Amino acid sequence: MDVNRSSRQKTSKDKLLIIHADDAGLSHSENKATIECLKKGMVNSYSIMVPCPAFEEMATFAKENPPFDHGIHLTLTCEWHDHRFGPVSPPEEVKSLTDHNGYFYKTRQELSENARAEEVYKELTAQIERALDFGLRPSHIDSHMYSVGASPDFFKTYKDLGKKYGLPIFINKKLMHGVGLKVEECIDEKDFVVDNAEWATFDHFKRQHLKTFYHETIKNLGPGLNIILIHPAFDDDEMKSITIDHPNFGAEWRQMDFETFTDEKTRSVLEENDIRLVTWREISKFSKV
Q1: Which long-range contacts (CB under 8 A, 24 or more apart) does 83-89 make?
Q2: Cα–Cα dist 22/24, whole Å
Q3: I want to staple 3 with a disulfide (CB 3.0 to 4.6 A). Which of 80, 81, 210, 286 is the partner?
């Protein structure tokens, strides 16, 4: 069942919203901020990067706090200058996914030019299996930098894994357009599609308008299923080191995300605009995986 149709049939006037924190597991700073946003703020969903150094810290939290909705942030790229990581699979089995140092490529373009679809499938399966072996019970699957959209073949793998594990995957047409996928060739009427996805841009950050952007986005949400993607962390030494020479989604940006979604003013904006917060677990009943 297509959530685009089903959500409107069942809740035609409801403005449903997931406030989703990406990149949990990237670092201690990212984990700590995400946890505070879940416990004290408005974030109601997050996803964990399995190959990253702080995976176990966040996975332990997920196991000990099952009411908080979590997914697996499938990872095929590593954009940072010094904070490098690579595959969960044995390196010799997924050589096409890594650079000469054994790390993931920094960009989707490099991934597209080098990666073999069968090795993408092997690595993403290994990430899901590691999460399950750790004891996680994810509500959904999504993708870091939407790197599963680096090619139609990788996107098919993404969809196949959702079916294999019986989990909804994050599909949104705006994101697909953004990474160059032809929507009409990659999804069909049976796919679970999020109506509207929103995220801040570097221009919002440069103008110091992140909070304004998020509040205006909330005010302008329409009926159906919406998702706001954020990346909470602290502007501390750890994140400054990780995001050095990378202000786009850098430490300062992530601090602003944290502050916005732990600010009671944001909660007021949600309430004033009759926004209904939902989780992936709640909406997964609309999907047929």
Answers
A1: 83/26, 83/27, 83/241, 83/242, 85/51, 85/52, 85/53, 86/51, 87/51, 87/123, 87/126, 88/50, 88/51, 88/123, 88/126, 88/127, 88/130, 89/119, 89/122, 89/123, 89/126
A2: 6
A3: 286
User: Mind listing the pLDDT tens digit of every residue in the chain (289 residues)?
Assistant: 344 444 443 445 899 999 999 999 999 999 999 999 999 999 999 999 999 999 999 999 999 999 999 999 999 999 999 999 999 999 999 999 999 999 999 999 999 999 999 999 999 999 999 999 999 999 999 999 999 999 999 999 999 999 999 999 999 999 999 999 999 999 998 999 999 999 999 999 999 899 999 999 999 999 999 999 999 999 999 999 999 999 999 999 999 999 999 999 999 999 999 999 999 999 876 555 5
Type and span of the H or E element at 158? helix 152-165
CA atoms within 13 A on the CB side of 197: 18
Residue 208: phi and psi, rounded to 5, are 60, 40
Question: How far apart are the C-alpha atoms of 253 and 63, rounded to whole Å?
Answer: 28
Domains of the chain (ranges; CATH) run 3-286 (3.20.20.370)
Q: pTM of the prediction?
A: 0.94
CB neighbours of residue 179 within 10 Å? 17
User: What string of DSSP letters covers 186-209?
Assistant: H--TTS---SEEE---HHHHHTT-
**Whole-angstrom distance, CA of residue 91 vs CA of residue 95:** 6
